[in-house]
User: Which sequence fits this backbone?
């Protein structure tokens, strides 16, 4: 992954690409989280293939792109038609393709300014949470991360309970990947970076976007500490430091 969808860490894909190219290995990266949000250059990343999805940069759902470097050999996925240069048979979603192209164009025009705006809001949210709530940790790289991602663990409470509390206040957050929101198991990503099961279950993921404002951040910083305090008050594990 160019950037992790849960904790927002941007991976050193260019360095990995150099190693893969030197060894003669085809290299693909999932750039779904980064396309339209930070610069994505296939030559700098040294990838042979790259995936992106339109809905991640405000395009239509159900359409994406697979970039394939010239000379890369692929086996056909679905046979029976000549669409996609013979790689995947089936009628193309022309309106979706056009919508993806336009959304990508608009995202590129706004990307630098929007990334700066979201980074400022992200940093404000992170700093505010850490200052207002004790026993909190930021998950993922502190600097090499997506402009719109904040993933934290709040000790002594379950993330799911916090999500429900915030939902009642009109604030939408998640406890992990949107792709596995129905999975009761702790995030394998959080376990993989060394968190305990309890810390992984206490994680919260905030994703900022085009419509997020400074007032929204202030609202979260007002509601979240009170919600955490209520939940910790009934937690047998919590003791004030």
Assistant:
């Amino acid at each position: 992954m160019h950037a992790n969808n849960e904790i927002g860490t941007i991976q050193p894909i260019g360095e990995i690409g150099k190693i893969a190219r030197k060894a003669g290995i085809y290299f693909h990266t999932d750039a779904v989280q980064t396309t339209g949000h930070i610069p994505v250059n296939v030559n700098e990343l040294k990838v042979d293939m790259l995936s992106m999805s339109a809905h991640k940069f405000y395009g239509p759902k159900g359409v994406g792109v697979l970039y394939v470097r010239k000379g890369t050999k692929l086996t056909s996925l679905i046979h029976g038609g000549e669409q996609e240069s013979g790689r995947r048979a089936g009628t193309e979603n022309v309106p979706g393709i056009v919508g993806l192209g336009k959304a990508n164009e608009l995202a590129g025009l706004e990307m630098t300014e929007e990334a700066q705006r979201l980074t400022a809001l992200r940093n404000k949210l992170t700093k505010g949470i850490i200052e207002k709530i004790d026993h909190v940790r930021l998950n993922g790289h502190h600097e090499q991360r997506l402009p719109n991602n904040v993933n934290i663990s709040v000790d002594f409470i379950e993330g799911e309970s916090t999500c429900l509390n915030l939902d009642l206040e009109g604030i939408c957050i998640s406890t992990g990947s949107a792709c596995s929101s129905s999975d009761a198991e702790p995030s394998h990503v959080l376990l993989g970076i060394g968190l305990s099961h309890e810390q992984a279950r206490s994680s919260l993921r905030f994703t900022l976007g085009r419509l997020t404002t400074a007032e929204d951040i202030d609202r979260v910083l007002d509601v979240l500490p009170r919600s955490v305090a209520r939940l910790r008050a009934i937690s047998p594990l919590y003791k004030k430091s």
Summary: The two ends are 38 Å apart (CA to CA). The chain is about 40% helix and 10% strand. The mean pLDDT is 93. The longest strand covers residues 149-154.
